[in-house]
Amino acid sequence: MPNKPRHIILGISGGIAAYKSLSLIRLLQKNGAEVRVVATPNALQFVTPLSLQTLSCNAVYTDPFKILEHVEVEHVALADWGDALVVAPATADVVGKFANGIADDALTTLFLAFNKPVVLAPAMNHKMLQHPAVVENLQTLSARGCHVLGTGEGYLACGTNGSGRMLEPEQICDTLFRILALSQDLSGRRALVTAGPTYEPLDPVRFIGNHSSGLMGFCLAESLARHGAQVVLVTGPTHLELQNTDIQRIDVMAAQQMLAACEDHFPQCDIAIMSAAVADYTPQEVASQKIKKQSDTLTLTLKKNPDILSTLGHRKTDRQCVVGFALETENELENARLKLQNKNADIIVLNSLNHSGAGFKTPTNQVTIIDKKGHVTNGNLKDKREVAEDIVSYLVDYMSDTK
Ligand code: CTP
User: Fold this and answer.
1) Residue nearest atom 4 in ligand 1 by C-alpha distance
2) Which of 6, 132, 194, 202 is deepest in the core (most CB within 10 A)?
3) pTM (global) more than 0.85
């Protein structure tokens, strides 16, 4: 890869570490990148526009309100141009604005218009770094898909020792290029993901549902997109929102609608990950009017829903890879292996409800990945976003081994 130079936007905010950004520009260029700089007004207290312009060989974008010679909106055009945005240093101020959607200068405006990989290299006094507001803002940004780097320990500009120093330009550059490589490994691939519960209608006002939040599937869709795949997410009812606006979202209610959407999209897909908690049964009859209260008991007759994973598993061609989940409470491995076989999946991700912190309605999960070749990989309890990343990385390796 790549013959085309990487387009890197370097965002600089106002901290003393801004002087290190000058060597970061050089380093990025040495690694084959073309660099454009966006600096906040405070950053220009530490480094001059002339240094930034001379080193980057491009005009520095600092003022979103200046009259443009050309008609294109600069932050939007720049957002289209960049393959990645690296903000170094990322001060507490800019981190707070990013996390809260405030757009009052060139960098914060660009950030909101940017939907490709973002790397943040925080730099601030160690007490500021530990402040709950900053901790929470960094967590929010990380949960939305930004790559938040750590900080170094050592002498700080305020005269104390501690954490909060910006990482060295070499470390920032290495991480950025690793992330960019990763963002390519599924490029050109199409992926279908199911998420959330299904609501099976009983009458115009009632349904049978379950407690699935959809979070695991949303994290998987975001992760696949970060790896460069074109993603369609078919989701049952959930309050979740996607961060990545390139993901195509299809909202459905019942299992039949979920199946229909999957059948539409599966033939064009290389990957299908079925993480939805599809209701196994649905009411045999859907009353056209609200069911009135009558006797002391009410008997409902349910009929089996189609199994979406099994339907796609038995339709898949050699180029397609199908991943299912198994939610088990006993004989976990054995049952998961049976699902792998019976539903003709390539990979089954086993969720055991016996692990605390795993499964429905939790932000964390603990899974075991089982594949058709007989490999079994146990994971630790992690944030669902990290679990999604593990599953997608496993899938990438699995697919490159079977090519
Ligand atoms: N699944 C599906 N369609 C269904 C039921 C399940 O696509 N009608 C998929 C789920 O998305 C998941 C996998 O099948 O990927 C396993 O779901 P799970 O609930 O663990 O298993 P079931 O097949 O429903 O079997 P059981 O409830 O008996 O364990």
Assistant:
1) 307
2) 194
3) no
